């Protein structure tokens, strides 16, 4: 009756997983993609970002090596080499996605897809009918409407700059802004990070936010809060950013990382009755079903938790629900995450503020210390770790860390949290010595109560 059992709009993290799993369950599947296979994460998100973070970190490593007896010779960094190698790796990944989809029997349709009715998708002049449709069109960076905004770049362009800018202004307070401030600084640029709020990384634990601000400031990044750019202009080769306090900053590159909007415009959603919310995100239930029974939506386009592993889980669950006779929903509780700042953050569970609101009485355990490596490297960097415990049940409800390998460490801790581990079970776990992570099983002293929230931006 239909051309396909399942038609997916967008071959990003969520769409690819849903298409591949659905095909594996025996469905006839097509996926339309108008830009790049693998979506944001592979092309202009997690993957190239992490490669740039590795590149930036070498400058710290070269400096740290001296205390261990190394003499590091002349250092030169070549941005075009990094970008060319990054591009080659992403091309390789695009190829893997193509063969993975085709190998699973999924038809890839090149072009921009639009719904024309609840069972029909138009791509160019072609029409495809499908019993079920999945909207997985992701999100797009938003740059505020200021005079000169066309002079700024977003995370879409930053990965393709011809040269490393010498002076960079990064605007925004989310994880992408913080990460790029660290990347540019590590690669040798002079960096100002500008955020309009009191403290960046809203949604992360307050202690962690303040600690990172302190560390970034110590490294020499000009971290500024309560400030915005009113206008941008060009003077010869130089960009001039006029701030709301009248100050003018000169830069070679202004990068806006001020949020992303769901990709829902112009794809026929309203016309077929798919509801969206005030932010333009597709409204879905726990099963990712939209207001139209046979149309589902997953990933950033639904603006739930905008992370790749979450989009993948949601896509997988939809495929299982529709084609494996097993109604499935993605679990959005205790999703761990990392910020690949320098030093990085790893986080799982509730922040202290959320835990106090949810549980009332909580105990916190905190530790701030110089990691062993830096006793010889001489680097003035402190690791910070924090446990948040529900006093009534003894359950650990939040774990936060800032320091080397925080993402790697928190991934393991997240399993314990998911299993409902208590502080007593953390205490009963033997540490691995000498590591930073062992601190999580040796913290015994409760932090004074209530712990101060919202420190000044000073080194901890
Ligand atoms: C700079 C940056 C760094 C990030 N770092 C991380 C990280 O470290 N860890 C992490 O977990 N997440 C990270 N993310 C977020 C992550 O990339 C997204 O959460 C994830 O890609 C969402 O997947 P998705 O399937 O919803 O959408 P996307 O991956 O964006 O895929 C949507 C796809 O749909 C296509 N499309 C859109 N409209 C149409 C249409 N009408 N027709 C056909 N195709 C269409 C797009 O071209 C795109 O390929 C980062 C994002 C950015 C921007």
Description:
- Helices cover 32% and strands 23% of the residues.
- It has helices at residues 13-24, 39-44, 46-65, 79-103, 155-158, 175-186, 206-219, 269-272, 308-323, 352-359, 373-377, 406-418, 423-428, and strands spanning 4-9, 29-33, 107-110, 113-117, 120-123, 126-135, 139-141, 167-171, 190-194, 222-224, 229-235, 238-243, 248-251, 253-256, 260-262, 295-297, 337-339, 345-349, 362-369, 383-390, 396-402.
- A hairpin with a 5-residue loop joins β20 (383-390) and β21 (396-402).
- α1 (13-24) runs parallel beside α9 (308-323), α3 (46-65) packs antiparallel against α4 and α3 (46-65) crosses α6.
- The termini are far apart.
- Mean pLDDT is 96; it is low at 453-460.
- The structure holds flavin-adenine dinucleotide.
- The site of flavin-adenine dinucleotide has 36 residues, from α1, β2, α2, α3 and α9.
- Flavin-adenine dinucleotide (FAD) binds next to α1, β2, α2, α3 and α9.
């Amino acid at each position: 009756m239909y051309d396909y059992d399942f038609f997916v709009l967008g071959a990003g993290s969520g769409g690819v997983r849903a298409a591949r799993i659905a095909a594996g369950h025996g469905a006839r599947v097509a996926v339309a993609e108008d830009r790049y296979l693998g979506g944001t994460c592979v092309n202009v998100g997690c993957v190239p970002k992490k490669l740039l973070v590795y590149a930036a970190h070498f400058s710290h490593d070269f400096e740290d090596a001296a205390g261990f007896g190394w003499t590091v010779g002349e250092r030169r960094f070549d941005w075009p080499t990094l970008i060319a190698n990054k591009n080659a790796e992403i091309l390789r990944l695009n190829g893997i996605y193509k063969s993975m989809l085709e190998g699973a029997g999924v038809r890839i349709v090149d072009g921009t897809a639009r719904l024309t009715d609840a069972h029909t998708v138009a791509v160019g002049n072609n029409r495809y009918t499908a019993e079920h449709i999945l909207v997985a069109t992701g999100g797009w960076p938003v740059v505020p409407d200021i005079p000169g905004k066309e002079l700024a770049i977003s995370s879409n362009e930053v990965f393709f700059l011809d040269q490393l800018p010498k002076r960079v202004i990064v605007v925004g307070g989310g994880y992408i802004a913080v990460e790029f401030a660290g990347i540019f600084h590590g690669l040798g640029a002079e960096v100002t990070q500008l955020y309009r709020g009191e403290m960046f990384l809203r949604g992360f634990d307050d202690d962690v936010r303040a600690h990172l601000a302190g560390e970034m400031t110590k490294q020499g990044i000009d971290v500024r809060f309560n400030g915005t750019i009113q206008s941008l202009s060009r003077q010869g080769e130089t960009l001039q950013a006029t701030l709301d306090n009248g100050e003018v900053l000169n830069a070679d590159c202004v990068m806006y990382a001020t949020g992303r909007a769901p990709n829902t415009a112009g794809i026929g959603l309203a016309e077929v009755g798919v509801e969206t919310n005030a932010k333009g995100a597709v409204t879905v239930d726990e099963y990712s079903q939209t207001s139209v029974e046979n149309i589902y939506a997953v990933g950033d386009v639904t603006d739930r938790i905008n992370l790749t592993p979450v989009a993948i889980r949601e896509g997988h669950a939809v495929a299982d629900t529709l084609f494996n006779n097993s109604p499935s929903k993605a679990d959005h509780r205790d999703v761990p995450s990392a910020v690949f700042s320098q030093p990085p953050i790893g986080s799982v569970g509730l922040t202290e503020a959320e835990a106090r609101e949810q549980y009332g009485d909580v105990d916190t355990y905190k530790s701030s210390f110089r990691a062993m490596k830096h006793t010889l490297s001489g680097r003035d960097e402190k690791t910070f770790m924090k446990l948040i415990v529900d006093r009534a049940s003894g359950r650990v409800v939040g774990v936060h860390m800032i320091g080397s390998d925080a993402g790697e460490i928190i991934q393991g801790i997240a399993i314990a949290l998911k299993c409902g581990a208590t502080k007593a079970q953390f205490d009963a776990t033997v540490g691995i010595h000498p590591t930073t992570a062992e601190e999580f099983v040796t913290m015994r002293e409760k932090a004074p109560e209530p712990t101060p929230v919202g420190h000044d931006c000073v080194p901890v």
